Amino acid sequence: MKVGLFVPCYIDQFYPSVGIATLQLLEKFGCDVHYPPDQTCCGQPMANSGFASLTHGCNQNFVKNFSGLDYIVAPSGSCVLHIKEHLHDDRNPEAAKEIRSRIFELTEFLTDILKVETVEARFPHRVGLHQSCHGQRMLHLASMSERVLPPFSKAEQLLKGVKGLELVKPARVDECCGFGGTFCVTEEAVSVAMGEDRVSEHEVNNVDYITGGDTSCLMHLEGILRRKKSCIKIIHLAEILAAQ
């Protein structure tokens, strides 16, 4: 299958290893991966700030770069959700509609489309999992504790097959880390307090790493960990699943 690799701007600029790991994973499972070099930001920061009307250029560029592919995959639940809910192009409405139905977050694509049962990875560390809000509550990548439904987590499903990895859950498995896009800028103090709460639960569990599917959330937690001079590191799910 012909798969377009969408690498969000903050991953491209700050965590390129996440994009590389995603590429390696997709190729490992037989995908014909295409990386459009002219791709840019999806426009989510503007939409989050109330300026969705100014994202026309981002939308048109996204449609131009990712049309004609079987699927589009990104290692970022929040950016995927933005495209699913907001992508539009008055000049190519059908192309935009097709993209909205064919874009997937990485773990969702691996479990639901490729039907991956084991990734043949090795990561001998004690790892805490952070379930990001966009992925969990909007993309349904994991169950929500307030709903009386059988628990599930697509990330956890994949991580359980990683050799040597000891997965440790925090007491409150689906609590927000406080990043929240532009919320961490407009409500800095509240955002930091929420992040510190998240970090403290992982510290109690004595983990070596905190992982998740959104680098934005992990970046927020990493900043708190660094200021505390903690030994805990952050790592994206893709990097664990691609580890040998």
TrEMBL record:
<dbReference type="GO" id="GO:0005829">
    <property type="term" value="C:cytosol"/>
</dbReference>
<feature type="domain" description="Cysteine-rich">
    <location>
        <begin position="3"/>
        <end position="84"/>
    </location>
</feature>
<feature type="domain" description="Cysteine-rich">
    <location>
        <begin position="127"/>
        <end position="221"/>
    </location>
</feature>
<dbReference type="Pfam" id="PF02754">
    <property type="entry name" value="CCG"/>
</dbReference>
<dbReference type="InterPro" id="IPR004017">
    <property type="entry name" value="Cys_rich_dom"/>
</dbReference>
<dbReference type="GO" id="GO:0016491">
    <property type="term" value="F:oxidoreductase activity"/>
</dbReference>
<protein>
    <submittedName>
        <fullName>(Fe-S)-binding protein</fullName>
    </submittedName>
</protein>
